[in-house]
């Protein structure tokens, strides 16, 4: 079954800061920005900007199970938050997606948004010349395939396993590169000692 995203989730725009996010060492909140998400999709919680939200009326605090969607830039992707260890809001570059239907797992939603069919949809609907962005209406109309929850769980488990395999392979490649660098250093050192 295919449904539009807006029928399954509440969609909220990230908090609009006036200009850059003002740092406040004694502030009551932290702001999630695009730079805080690593290439592996993990949030660097320790690096978040601390700020004060005094004067803001409606604040959507992030919580575990929320999906944040990067709406600006050349890569529009989603991230399901497993944990939110700090009182955090997302900045204006994100949309906050909160599932309201038990028939849609947040992890599955993030996975589906990040896969090729939805990425093609987003690419064809992105707007802007200086910086591409996805409008709220485009996101609301996003077609989401809704398999049974048991199938969603299996897909999420498979995606997690693929992520672990990717990390393991990347670690093995880095180790091999270090070995090759050490071999090159050793060769140069031996060559220099024979001169």
Task: Please explain how this structure is put together.
The protein is α+β, with helices and mostly antiparallel strands and 195 residues long. It has two domains: 2-144, DNA methylase specificity domains (Adenine-n6-DNA-methyltransferase TaqI, Chain A, domain 2, Alpha-Beta Complex); 147-195. Helix content is 35%, strand content 17%. The protein has four helices and nine strands. It has a four-stranded antiparallel β-sheet. It has a three-stranded mixed β-sheet with strand order 4-3-7, with no helix packed on it. A two-stranded antiparallel ribbon has the order 1-9. β5 (67-70) and β6 (78-80) form a beta hairpin. The longest helix has 45 residues, at 149-193. The relative contact order is 0.16.
Question: What's the SSE blueprint?
Answer:
Layout: E1 2-4, E2 9-13, E3 29-32, E4 49-51, E5 67-70, E6 78-80, E7 88-90, E8 94-99, H1 106-114, H2 116-125, H3 136-140, E9 143-145, H4 149-193
Parallel strand pairs: 3-7
Antiparallel strand pairs: 1-9, 2-8, 3-4, 5-6, 5-8
Low-confidence stretches are none
Question: Which percent band covers the strand fraction?
Answer: 15-25%
CA-based gyration radius: 21 Å
Q: Write down the CATH class of the largest domain.
A: Alpha Beta
Shape: globular
Number of strands: 9
Whole-number average pLDDT? 92
Q: Give the helix level as a range of percent.
A: 25-40%
The number of helical runs is: 4
Per the CATH scheme, the topology name of the largest domain is Adenine-n6-DNA-methyltransferase TaqI, Chain A, domain 2
Strand order of the largest sheet: 2-8-5-6
Q: Tell me the domain tally.
A: 2
| Distance separating the two termini | 74 Å
- Look at the structure and name the CATH superfamily of the largest domain: DNA methylase specificity domains
CATH architecture of the largest domain: Alpha-Beta Complex
The helix/strand order is EEEEEEEEHHHEH
- Structural class label: alpha+beta
Largest sheet descriptor: 4 strands, antiparallel
């Amino acid at each position: 079954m295919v449904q539009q995203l807006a029928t399954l989730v509440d969609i909220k725009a990230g908090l609009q800061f006036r200009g850059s996010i003002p740092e406040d060492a004694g502030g009551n909140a932290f702001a999630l920005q695009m730079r805080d998400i690593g290439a592996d999709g993990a949030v660097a919680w320790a690096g978040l900007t601390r700020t004060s939200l005094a004067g803001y009326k409606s604040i959507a605090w992030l919580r575990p199970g929320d999906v944040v969607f990067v709406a600006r830039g050349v890569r529009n992707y989603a991230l399901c938050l497993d944990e939110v260890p700090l009182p955090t809001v997302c900045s204006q570059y994100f949309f906050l997606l909160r599932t309201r239907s038990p028939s849609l797992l947040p992890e599955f939603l993030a996975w589906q948004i990040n896969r090729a069919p939805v990425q093609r949809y987003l690419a064809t609907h992105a707007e802007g010349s200086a910086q591409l962005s996805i409008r709220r209406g485009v996101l609301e109309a996003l077609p989401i395939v809704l398999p049974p929850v048991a199938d969603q769980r299996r897909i999420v488990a498979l995606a997690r396993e693929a992520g672990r395999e990717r990390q393991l392979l990347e670690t093995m490649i880095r180790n091999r590169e270090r070995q090759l660098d050490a071999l090159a250093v050793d060769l140069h050192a031996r060559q220099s000692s024979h001169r």
